[in-house]
Design goal:
The protein is α/β, with parallel strands linked by helices. The chain has 8 helices and 10 strands. Strand 1 and strand 2 form a beta hairpin. Helix 3 packs across helix 4. It holds the Pfam family Peptidase_S9.
Length: 264
C-alpha cells in the first residue's frame, strides 16, 4: 500500500523505496496538461490520465484524445507518462501517486479543486489507476474511471503486463501483491468501469471480478460490459467502430460524472 509521498522516499507496503520518478520536476516533465474548456476563476475538477500499453509503452490514443474529451466536459486533464519497462513495480505506482499529489498541490498553475481530483486509466493504465485507489484515504483519487483494465495478475493474467511490470518468472507473492481485486476496501473511491465481452486480450472477467470486490465492500460502482469490440478501443471514435454499442461509454461516463457534480 502506498502510504506517504515525499521528495526522497516512498513507503510501499511497509518498505522504503527511492523516488527517481517522483520529484516535482520529474513529474512536471512527464505530464502534458490540458485546461478545461469551461474553466474560469473557480476551481474545477481534474483527472489524471493513464494510457495503456502493457507497462511497456504509452498508447497515444488513450492519452491526449481522452484529455480533450475531458476538457470538453469542463474537467482539467493531466496525461502522465508513467515509468514503464525496464522499470519494475513499484516504480509506476509510486510515480503515479506523486503525480496525483502534484496535481492537488497546484504547481501546474491551473485552477484545480483539490477535493475533486480523479483518475482515468485504460488497460495497463487501468491497473495503475486501480492501484492508486488502494492507498490511504487522503492520498487516493476522488473518482476512478477504468476502461478494459488489467486487474488480476493471478486469474487470467496478461503475460505482457506481468513480464514488463514484475520481470520474468514472478512468484506467487509478487502476483498477489499487484492483483488489485485483492486489495479493495470500503475507502475505495466511486468507480466507473467498462469492458467488452469480446475482448480477448484482457478478458471482461477482470472488470467483473473487480466490480464484485467493490460491491462486496459497499463501494459505489457503475459497470458496463458491451457485447462487441476489440481490446484498446479508447474513445471508440474510429469510423470502422461506429457500429459498436461501446461508443456509448463516454456519454454514460459523462452522466456519471455529472451526477457527482463534476461537470458544469
Amino acid at each position: 500500500m502506498i502510504r506517504t509521498i515525499t521528495q526522497t522516499t516512498v513507503s510501499w507496503k511497509g518498505r522504503q523505496v527511492p523516488t527517481e520518478a517522483t520529484s516535482p520536476g520529474e513529474i512536471a516533465r512527464r505530464i502534458d496538461q490540458f485546461r478545461a474548456d469551461a474553466a474560469g476563476a473557480a476551481d474545477a475538477p481534474a483527472m489524471l490520465v493513464l494510457p495503456g500499453g502493457a507497462y511497456g509503452r504509452h498508447a497515444p490514443h488513450e492519452g491526449a484524445p481522452v484529455a480533450s474529451w475531458l476538457t470538453s466536459l469542463g474537467i482539467h486533464a493531466f496525461v502522465f507518462s508513467y515509468p514503464v519497462a525496464p522499470a519494475r513495480h513499484p516504480a509506476p505506482v509510486r510515480a503515479a501517486a506523486a503525480a496525483l499529489a502534484w496535481i492537488r498541490g497546484g504547481a501546474h498553475g491551473l485552477p484545480v479543486d483539490p477535493g475533486r481530483v480523479g483518475v482515468i486509466g485504460f488497460s495497463a493504465g487501468g491497473h495503475l489507476a486501480a492501484s492508486l485507489c488502494a492507498g490511504p484515504a487522503g492520498d487516493r483519487p476522488d473518482r476512478c474511471v477504468l476502461g478494459y483494465p488489467v486487474i488480476s495478475f493471478v486469474r487470467q493474467p496478461h503475460d505482457g503486463c506481468s513480464r514488463n511490470l514484475l520481470g520474468p518468472g514472478p512468484g506467487d507473492a509478487a502476483r498477489h501483491e499487484v492483483s488489485v481485486e485483492e486489495h479493495v476496501d470500503d475507502r475505495h473511491p466511486p468507480t466507473f468501469l467498462w469492458h467488452t465481452a469480446a475482448d480477448d486480450a484482457v478478458p471482461a472477467g477482470h472488470s467483473l471480478s473487480y466490480a464484485a470486490a467493490l460491491v462486496a465492500r459497499g463501494v459505489p460502482v457503475d459497470l458496463h460490459v458491451f457485447a462487441e469490440g476489440r481490446h484498446g478501443l479508447g474513445l471508440v471514435d474510429r469510423p470502422d467502430d461506429a457500429h459498436l454499442d461501446a461508443r456509448r461509454w463516454t456519454s454514460l461516463c459523462e452522466s456519471w460524472l455529472s451526477a457527482a457534480g463534476w461537470t458544469p
